[in-house]
Amino acid sequence: MNHRFSNTRKTRPNFTKYGAISCYHTEIMCGIFAYIGKPKSIKLALGWLQTLEYRGYDSCGVCFKTKKGLKIIKTVGGVDNLTKQLRTLNGVVSNRIIAHTRWATHGKVSTLNAHPHTSCNNEVAVVHNGIIENFNKIKSKLRNHKFTSQTDTELIAHLVEDEIKKNKSAKDIIKYLYNLIEGSYAIVIFLDSRDEIILLRKDCPLVVGLNNSEIYICSDSQAISNFVNRIIYLHNNTGAIIKENQIRFVNSLGLPVSVQEEAVQKHVENSGNKKYKHHMLHEIFEQENLIYTAINHRLKDLKNDGIIDFSRCSHDALSNVKRIVIFGCGTTYHACLYGSYLMRELLGIHTEAWIASELRYSKYIHSPNTLYIGISQSGETLDTLQIVWSLKERGEKVLGITNSPSSQLAKESDYVILMKAGREIGVAATKTYTAQLLELMFFTMMLAQKQKINTKFYIRPLEKLPAAVSNILKRHDEIRDLAEKFYRHKNYMFIGRKFNVPTAYEGALKLKEITYLHAEGYAGGEMKHGPIALVDKELITFAVAPEDPIFSKIESNISEIKSRGGKIICITTSKQLNTDEMFLIPTNHEFFYPLLCIIPLHLFAYHVADLLGREIDKPRNLAKSVTVE
Ligand code: F6R
């Protein structure tokens, strides 16, 4: 096994000499969209670009071919700002359009730093996701060019301009760039004078979609799946040359390569969101149907004494699991943590939950029959993917749980569970969190079945969940009332015990993420070890307190806070609880309360953010898919 040490930036998985999971750096946020075909409205193209805003929305730009050369429009902020600037261009069409939405990593957020970037003669335009690691070295040799931005991307435009002056062909340019540029990238280059488009891809996703004579290029297959018939997922170190609506694929040496076309899986768009003020609210309400469908589908097997079917997940390989390691980031990590409590409790298997960015730098300890579970709704979170790559290099088995069938996590895991939550547009995860909890619940039940643990007992509580979710959502005005009462407070604490420690963490994360208020999540038992010092009449504490076997423990935590003058809001099943405010949830089994308790907390965060006038679907500084380390 290779134990190379690397603290320099690497773009492929690597192990440290200490055996840590991996140690390398890459930056691949941002979204790319390009179109080549019969003339299309620029406004329409911007609509497509908007679907990529989940990859970043601090600035964006578009470049299109006109009779007078390339026209470039860029702006700070989201695609709506760009569309406003285009008002004067109403009705304008073009047959070559490249566009980009950015999440700044190098160079501040500014119009100049937004993509596309151009060469000095304005004949080469470039959009790029990724990082050019030897940027400074190359730039120092390009003294005859005037740089207008702080980005590494601009370099490519100048390099290509020089190659065109030397009459180099597109395949020679591809060979030259692959040889010269170190780092990770998905690049689209438009050569106006030749009417040629060049693509390069290394470690950042880039797909080509085909529809009759139209060619679409995108950093996300889902965004173009509804208007193409076939998709080509470019492999690493593959380039493409598009001329006269024809496309040729080459390798990094510029030699022809064959690629595989895949039939497109049409993506079902969210419908009905017009009824809701924000996508996030729509997505919270969508859970009613999603949870009903998911539970009914899985329960069939459980009721019929069949092993729960996870179609892309081989049962045999999972029958002898002795240790489970689950990893993910952010909200998804909270789902991992829930999974670890559940698996320990129900299966009696040693289970660890890890924040992916921490696991990466921890010592790798091999133990036989370990199942690694990587969870990511987007399937593109870099910290999570890098662990998957490292584990695979070590010969470990990885189960990926994701909401995106075309994601890198789905493609690279040994086994895959696809959550069927539908596309989540709001940056803050809601329905995908509950979908993760559900998949973990049923996957744990399936492992229990394999161990001959009786799972019949859980059928009734699981059956009760959809009605319980409906009940909670129907009473969402009660949560709005709570938000109206408390939204002026600046500090919040969320506490829970055992299965609801992740719920407390998640309630706090959601509140801070979309309201920008200070919130902390704690295991209730930890309060007296420090955080209780924060309690005063200004601090609002949410206690997640369903009547589970350790209900009396959270009751004590609540009393301790109340007796120090703190304000308490309880999410509970008990009308008797001594609290300032309460939101009642239907009774269920302790395993499943997290699914119910999180819904009022997500709704509370939503309503507070709404009352504070926050940009709920696109909170500041965030992106839906975190593809940077
Ligand atoms: C918070 C949120 C994030 C994500 C995290 C991981 O609302 O959405 O914390 O959970 O960035 O994302 P995935 O699941 O795509 O790996």
Textual characterization of the structure:
This protein has 629 residues and is an alpha/beta fold. It has 3 domains: 1-26 and 275-473, Glucose-6-phosphate isomerase like protein, domain 1 (Rossmann fold); 29-103 and 106-263, Aminohydrolase, N-terminal nucleophile (Ntn) domain (Glutamine Phosphoribosylpyrophosphate, subunit 1, domain 1, 4-Layer Sandwich), CATH 3.60.20; 475-620, Glucose-6-phosphate isomerase like protein, domain 1 (Rossmann fold). Strands 3-2-4-1-10-9-11-14 form an 8-stranded antiparallel β-sheet. Helix 7 packs antiparallel against helix 13 (459-474) and helix 14 (476-486) packs across helix 17 (593-611). It is globular. The protein starts with 30 loop residues before the first strand and ends in an 18-residue tail after the last helix. 52% of the residues are buried. The model is unreliable at 1-28 (pLDDT under 50). The structure holds fructose -6-phosphate.
Biggest β-sheet: strands ordered side by side in the sheet: 3-2-4-1-10-9-11-14
Number-wise, the strands total 24
The gross shape turns out to be globular
Ligands bound to this protein structure: fructose -6-phosphate
Total of helices: 17
In terms of DSSP E residues, the strand content is: 15-25%
Q: Give the % helix.
A: 25-40%
Radius of gyration: 26 Å
Which class of the largest domain in CATH terms?
A: Alpha Beta
Main sheet summary: 8 strands, antiparallel
